[in-house]
Design a protein that fits this description.
- Helices cover 50% and strands 15% of the residues.
- By secondary structure, the protein is α+β, with helices and mostly antiparallel strands.
- It has a six-stranded antiparallel beta sheet, with helices on both faces. It has a six-stranded antiparallel beta sheet with strand order 9-8-7-12-11-10.
- A hairpin with a 2-residue loop joins strand 5 (123-131) and strand 6.
- Helix 5 packs parallel to helix 9 (322-373) and helix 10 crosses helix 16 (485-500).
- The chain is elongated and about 120 Å long.
- The structure holds ligand C2E, succinic acid (2 copies) and fe (iii) ion (2 copies).
- One succinic acid (SIN) binds at residues 255-258, 280-283.
Length: 542
């Protein structure tokens, strides 16, 4: 016990601070904040030059400076302290506090000659930190110039250390729980992405976003195994600065990725610079150009078959703990599943594709022939078709309805086949009688297409593309939403393209004039909501 009044007062102050500390510690769940707070408080209570927490790194089997005051903490953090031949290591190994007021004479002192940071100290007090009997590190206070430590400092430090150890444990548990929750969330998102989309070119980038965020890596990619050539080819990547990766073409067994695919085992290179595995790198250019030093790769396996490799890259060392590796494995499995479902889907589609292809070639041929006869500007039908599809997608039309919009657009003026040349190709205004014939072309289209089973769902546009929003169109005078949406979408595009181009009966209109005409006709000829979206679409057009 302290024996004079001044000492007693100091002691009381310290106790009060200690109580405050333990309250704050218990409410701090951020590990870094916590470590800072502990060293700061220790420095203050011991009135010393600096305090440090050294935590044990199981992989390196060394202690590292997790937080310090007094010296440059970042630089200290880069200096691992060995368990043998250091004071901190001695405290750790023997589970015994040390007070030493002549550090420089002690052979156990570890002070590597480094120009980066000075580890020269004169006096030191250090205590072990334990969580439930398990040693996690050392808390120490140091003086660089002298300033002796007494036994009471060691007592204080031990109290801080025991509070700190509990708080560190809580923070670690919390961080793990939080990370698990976030990992679960990421997995759920990946599942959704896979289920909602069977196009790998869309799913893989979404998966890689989660890989990058949750695994905390700079870059990630998926290589797919081509079953015919047995080679790994780039499929999707994220976070790369160069294009070096895209030309990748590895044989099974070649390079690390090839090794992963062949052996079906994960490859881990936490730090290339200190790894004997650098010899296995075949994509040296990629690694050098990008500055990668950390690399992990996992095989993508479904139903016992290797589909490819998931690779992650980091520009600083990548130390993976148990949770990280477990999550990497899970995410690789998810990716493999995504690839499997997408492959199944596209094979299914392929079996129908030949047939569909034959039909669509026919339609395109007809459509082209129609344009030719109409003396329409070359490619009118093709242009309005592409534009209508874009507009429909922008408008939120379901993907499965697009194919009919496409066919309907290509065939929109099919009915003009029944209109005589004299009328169709007339250079001037139409007479009433001619106009009557011309206005029948949607009805003709209906009659021709109705009997073709697979074109029935594509009838809306040919039949209804001259209906107007206000009910003044033909052939049936439909009004507002009575007009099928596909026809409302198409009508704007058709008039746009008709006006922008020369016709036998007039010259093409300039863009600005066409836009103001379409705006003017919003709510009269056209569905106002369609016009709104359409105007966004043509903004970037010439
Ligand atoms: P199209 O040439 O493909 O024109 C499609 C639609 O674009 C027209 O439907 C109309 O809504 C709009 N449009 C085209 N040109 C103009 C124009 O100069 N001014 C305005 N305000 N709108 C225009 P619409 O009117 O039902 O015509 C259907 C089809 O009848 C036209 O298809 C074209 O083949 C023919 N047609 C229309 N007017 C004439 C004409 O004066 N002479 C000739 N020879 N044919 C005409
Ligand atoms: C040592 O443990 O010998 C050095 C640790 C320190 O300088 O804090
Ligand atoms: C790989 O290619 O397998 C990764 C690193 C390398 O070997 O290039
Ligand atoms: Fe028409
Ligand atoms: Fe047209």
């Amino acid at each position: 016990m302290p024996d004079d009044i001044a000492e007693l007062e100091r002691y009381n102050r310290q106790l009060k601070r200690l109580v405050e500390l333990s309250v704050t510690l218990n409410s701090t769940l951020d590990l870094n904040d916590l470590l800072q707070l502990i060293t700061k408080t220790a420095t203050e209570l011991l009135a010393c030059d600096g305090a440090s927490i050294l935590l044990y790194d199981e992989r390196l089997e060394k202690l590292y400076f997790a937080a310090s005051t007094g010296s440059d903490p970042k630089k200290l953090a880069e200096i691992p302290v060995p368990l043998d031949g250091s004071l901190a290591g001695t405290i750790f190994r023997t589970n015994t506090p040390i007070i030493l007021n002549k550090v420089e004479q002690d052979p156990r002192h570890y002070a590597p000659s480094s120009d980066r940071v000075s580890m020269q100290i004169r006096t030191l007090v250090g205590v072990p930190m334990l969580i439930k009997e398990r040693m996690i590190g050392v808390l120490e206070g140091v003086n660089k110039q002298g300033g002796e430590f007494v036994e009471q400092d060691q007592v204080i430090l031990s109290v801080i250390a025991s509070h700190a150890a509990t708080a560190i444990n809580n923070a670690r548990l919390f961080r793990e729980a939080e990370q698990r929750a976030q990992n679960l969330e990421a997995l759920r998102n990946i599942n959704d992405a896979v289920l909602n989309n069977l196009d790998l070119q869309l799913t893989l980038p979404q998966i890689l976003i989660h890989v990058q965020a949750r695994l905390g890596v700079d870059a990630a990619d998926v290589l797919l195994l081509n079953k015919k050539t047995n080679r790994l080819i780039y499929a999707s990547g994220l976070g790369f600065r160069t294009d070096a990766l895209k030309n990748i073409n590895l044989k099974l067994g070649q390079g690390n990725a090839g090794r992963v695919a062949k052996s079906r085992k994960m490859v881990s290179i936490p730090d290339l610079r200190s790894s004997n595995k650098s010899a296995t790198i075949v994509r040296v250019k990629l690694f050098e150009g990008e500055g990668f030093v950390g690399y992990y790769a996992a095989p993508l396996i479904v139903k016992g078959e290797v589909m490819g490799v998931l690779e992650v890259f980091h520009r600083s060392p990548l130390d993976a703990d148990h949770d990280w590796l477990a999550f990497f494995q899970v995410i690789a499995d998810q990716t493999a599943l995504a690839i499997d479902s997408a492959t199944l889907f596209s094979e299914l589609q392929l079996s129908n594709a030949d047939l569909r292809h034959a039909y669509d070639a026919t339609i395109e041929g007809w459509s082209h022939a129609l344009d030719l006869r109409d003396k329409e500007t070359e490619g009118h039908s093709q242009r309005v078709t592409e534009m209508t599809v874009k507009l429909a997608l922008l408008f939120g039309v379901k993907i499965e309805d697009i194919v009919n919009i496409r066919r309907g657009s290509l065939l929109h003026d099919m009915g003009k086949i029944a209109v005589p040349d004299a009328v169709l190709l007339k250079p001037g205004k139409l007479t009433d009688d001619e106009w009557l014939q011309m206005r029948k072309h949607p009805q003709y289209a209906y009659e021709m297409l109705e009997s073709i089973e697979y074109l029935k769902p594509a009838l809306e546009i040919p039949y209804c593309h001259h209906e107007k929003w206000d009910g003044s169109g033909y052939p049936r005078g439909l009004k507002g939403e009575e007009i099928p949406l596909s026809a409302r979408l198409f009508a704007v595009v058709d008039v746009w393209d008709a006006l922008r181009n020369d016709r036998p009966y007039r010259k093409g209109w300039p863009k600005a004039m066409t836009i103001s005409f379409i705006k003017e006709q919003s709510g009269i000829h056209f569905d106002p909501q369609v016009v709104e979206v359409f105007l966004r679409l043509v903004e970037d057009l010439p």
